[in-house]
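User: I'm preparing a small set of examples for a lab meeting where we compare how different chains pack in three dimensions. I only have the primary sequence for this one, and I'd like the structure in token form so I can line it up with the others. Please keep the answer compact; I'll paste it straight into my notes.
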Amino acid sequence: MKEHKIIFVINSTFPSYSGGIENWLFNILKEIPKQYNMRILSIKSNIQPFYEIPTSSKITFKYITSLRSMSYYSFLNRISFHLIMILEQLYWIFIATWKLVRDDSEIIISLHSIPTLIPCIIATYFKKNKKIVCSVRGVIGDDLESMSNKFLSKIYMMIEKYYLMRTDKVLANGWDTQKYLLKMGIESTVSPNGVDYHKFSNKQSSTTGNKQINSLIKKQKINTKIIVHVATLRGKINGIKDVIYLASVIKKESQILKEFIILFVGKGNAKPYKKYADNLGVLNQCIFLGEINYVKDIVKISDLVICLFGGGGTSQALIESMAVGKPIVAWDTLVYSQIIQNNIHGILVEKGNFSKMIKAIDSILSNKLLYDNLSENAQKKAETFDWVQVRQKLFNEINHV
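Assistant: Understood. Below is the structure token output for the 401-residue chain.
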């Protein structure tokens, strides 16, 4: 059987950096079909790897050394008002193009569109026999518009469309992303995020003796309800402030949640959010755990999961929470409704209607039959997103490029 060479292009310090794109790539690399040899073009980092990449002769890394490889990059970027970031990206595009031209891979897979796709397309001007697949990892144009950057949104989407039209295949990380691309006239196939279903549905805890877990269990025993929200603490689209505001409304309106805490799971700077929570008088109810490696066990001991953040694509946090078997309450936006059927896999609430959100939470926590039905249905739905199926679908698409 002929071996096919594929190179994934990722504009980050993978495997040292963790994020949605990085997590997707890590899980794809766990099991590679025999006929493929994988290369990964990423940015070199001096930080210890976050992901433990399987040791295999079928996986090799090609690194670009840039300012992002340096520990002081964030500081330089901040004091230069992001000028360093722009210059660094231009340098990255130039070096990535050069490395892709010299590489003999037959298929280039760009993990997101702009700017990652740019060197991939330029490389084909020099090596015309290469095929390009772009996996679009979100609805950036729509996100920019939602943050009142309409002009920037139009410019971004014009550039995005220009480069996507020059690919051989476009993959979307969700049905919402597919709809976003269709607005630009770009056809795509959905290749969603996945879940290690066996791991997340397993009822056994992997953190026996964890002090934080044990402390939370003690709080539950004295009738404190635990709500979980999983999202990076970053940007205006992620809804962290919405969750904090929800906590303040719960204190005023909930008939069930007399004692409660909301656990925020996700990396990022919690200081501004803690200040906001303090101003609303709910700092004691909002606990920021940061980036942890026992998300499953935190979700497992919780009473409920809420999903209020924005963005695009199939939400990994949502699918993992469903796999654990927890009832979900979420905003009725496409990022959630593409997975959750209302009142079957969870409850969807009109975005911004906090009073209805609280009524939905109260109804679940006061009705064991509803609680159990939503949990069971959510878990069944999550099984359809197991990484084995996601991987198989991805490689089927690659086979037909």
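A couple of notes for your slides: The chain has a mean pLDDT of 92. DSSP finds 17 helices and 13 strands in the chain.

User: Perfect, thanks.
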